[in-house]
Amino acid sequence: MSETGRRRSRPSRKVKAVNLDPHLCQQARRARDARFDGRFFVAVRTTRIYCRPVCPAPAAKEANVVYYPTAFAAEAAGFRPCLRCRPETAPGAGLWLGTAPTVVRGLRLIDEGALDAGSVEQLAARLGVTGRHLRRLFLEHAGATPVRIAQTRRLQFAKRLLDETSLPLTEVAHASGFGSLRRLHAVVQATYGRSPGQLRLLHAPSSALRLTVHEPYDWSSLLAFLRARAIPGLEEVDDERYTRHWEDATITVRYAAPHLLLTVAGAAPRQWPDIVRRTRRLFDAAADPTLINETLAADPLLAPLVAARPGLRVPGAWDAFEIGVRAILGQQISVAGARTLAGRLLASFRKMPSPEQLADADLSSIGLPAARQQTLRAYARAVLDGNERLEGIPGIGPWTRAYYAMRALADPDAFPAGDLVLRKAAHCTEKELTQRAEAWRPWRAYAAVHLWRSQA
Predict the structure, then answer these.
(1) 120-146 pLDDT, tens per residue?
(2) What is the pTM of this model?
(3) Among 326, 420, 308, which residue's Cα sits nearest to residue 368?
(4) Which of 37, 111, 288, 419 is catalytic?
């Protein structure tokens, strides 16, 4: 179930295979069941290689197989990735599904570059735990330490750029965080037994970077949501694609099952990882609809909605601060009205303003009430102070905080129970809706999108 190549070192005794149902994993890998792609990885002891469960190579004997929940865990145990099924292209492993909240937040911060220049102790301090405790949590829930995960992600990204783009090797090295071509060459050679140039020869570069998602995937609903809110001069959305202008780059995203096709023009190498992260967050690429639908379809209210749109996603955020600004602008007015105000704000600053720019800005020229201006400035100052959840900000109530958590923080359980449309769709009071939604945990954000969509 893998390609041949040079063997790596024996597995570390400190890393264990996280407990998985071996019978279920065996059935899934033998059937090459795409529903399990990204949920676990298959490591073969005899070849020292790990694969996705959908790998097209002949299946290894069960006695030679070890199952891991993440690619990080497989690599930490001494296995190297298959060149045929390319584990780095698997859909999001869904570590945020039911995993310890500290690990979820830690993974997000690592993905945003927290360990590129910082230490594990600094990351742990941001998460409110000790470095030792954070390492223990990561080993327990992700199968690898924070440093190993950061290293693996860096290498995975470099591999994807080598396979799917024509970026010069030096730019690949800088884009993936290796700093130099020499360092990239050393790590790639040690992992794959081939140089970066030799790896590139295995795949013809494509016109777009492919980001795999779990099927089904309701692309049309995502585009409809984003099209209604697109700010002229910043975004363009038609029936097939989303285009975003960010700094000096133009980013275009299309969908061809099971991939988001990402095209980037005008970006510096250092911007590539950030662009990929933002794209995955905006289009909720890590969600696993099979798990979500199993919970939501158990409720008679949601069952027909899930059946009608089994691939529905929660629209995310290109920029978390921007989503907060848009939510505040949209308080008590229509979507079209909020879009108009956002366009005026963009024109006033010639781009979407940063927290620093907005903290003391005069916003009277865009037609905002004085109270709303104060709320925006207070929000900007709160973000600068590290108030991620927007608690205690005058003018920001439970609905805005829940909406922000859904989109900006990618919280799958955020739920604005006081929303009038949700209460209308569920035919109940806020208290009754809150009680009923307990059965929808931890997917209440997806339930909210289903209910909103049913009333659109």
Answers:
(1) 999 999 999 999 999 999 998 888 999
(2) 0.87
(3) 326
(4) 419
